[in-house]
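Q: Can I borrow your eye for a moment on a structure tokenisation matter? Would you mind producing a protein record, from residues through to fold? Write it directly below this note and I will take it from there.
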Amino acid sequence: MENLKAQLEDLDCQLNDLEEQKKQIKLKRNEVLRASLEAAEEHKVMSDSMANLMLDGELPTREHKALGWEVNRISWAEKMEVYRKPYYRTEEPGVWVAVRPCGEEYENKTYLGILIGDFATSLSVRHDPETGTLGVEPSFHNPMIFIPDTKTIVFGMESWWGKIDKPEDLKKISDADIENVWYVRVLKDLAGDPASE
């Protein structure tokens, strides 16, 4: 019995040592995270918002603290679905598309593109107040298109695009095509644009 008691005391001492080591490692980790927050952009280890989230129970903004959130753990989605096949459109990855990017550098030109698939453009976060778990997963998936001529990638949300089924489909996407999209007309009406009349 004495032997078991000695073993238990020894294990308790080891646990205490491990707890102290864990505490010291967390302190050092938080030092690195705080240093990253103050570092120049090229020396950061991650985004400032993520570094703030990873600090021990500290949240990134005053607004979050005002909500009374307590974060004990960050849980990444079991299946990190950064890329996925589209489930609400019929276009398959790898099809040719006509694409007119919105960026000024593209000078309102229409290009031949290749639909790569839907990629996450952001992360979504949910908080479980009972466990203090912050769940993180990829979200806001959007079509990603590669343009061989410019060697660039654009998302569907930053371009006008459509599948090419036959050679005639590779026509220029015109200003008139864009102006006739229902939500463009609504936005112009809301803005009181006389051209929308």
Q: What stands out?
A: Confidence is low (pLDDT under 50) at residues 58-64. The longest strand covers residues 111-128. Strands lie at 73-76, 83-84, 96-101, 111-128, 133-147, 152-155, 159-163.
